[in-house]
Amino acid sequence: SMERSVQTRIFKIIVIGDSNVGKTCLTFRFTGGSFPDKTEATIGVDFREKAVEIEGEKIKVQVWDTAGQERFRKSMVEHYYRNVHAVVFVYDVTKMASFENLKTWIQECNGHHVSPSVPRVLVGNKCDLVSQIQVPSNTALKFADAHNMLLFETSAKDPKETQNVESIFMCLACRLK
Ligand code: GDP
Ligand code: MG
After folding, report:
1. Residue 117 Cα, ligand 2 centroid: separation in angstroms?
2. Whole-model pTM?
3. ipTM
4. Distance, CA of 30 to CA of 82 (rounded, Å)
5. TM spans, by residue (predicted)?
């Protein structure tokens, strides 16, 4: 008989950016739905999974989260970038330096043989801190355009943004099809 394979496909998304921009909180918001009361600096590599359904197929989205500025050993970095399906670059809208450092993160990503065909998005996080914004939307938009990325501005903290955060990851996962 023609049994269909029930092997669940895994979609690996990596989250990259400076320390403290909210990578862990965004990952939690997507995989667990909540904003953690307290996060500890991620040590090495951590990943969280979420089962989703896309066009009737159940797939597993695996979000890899990492420590920002702490540099890994070479073997660890290679493991992180291996077989990636999509990349999420994160900066903090209240910290210009975290936006400027994106160049370095993009270089690191390209240096690890992540194919240009792998979809990438740019996420400006902490939009709830309205009075502290340092990175204007149009500046971010120009940068995103220049690097062929979609821009999302959001807040991992604001529960009203939950759907928006989910759509960032789902928009990437849909491209697996
Ligand atoms: P990571 O180092 O990039 O993983 O950053 P974390 O997710 O650990 O978050 C760093 C700090 O920023 C923590 O104190 C979070 O509570 C805070 N944070 C994360 N996302 C937001 C957000 O959207 N808004 C605000 N106001 N704070 C946030
Ligand atoms: Mg973290």
Report:
1. 26
2. 0.91
3. 0.99
4. 22
5. none
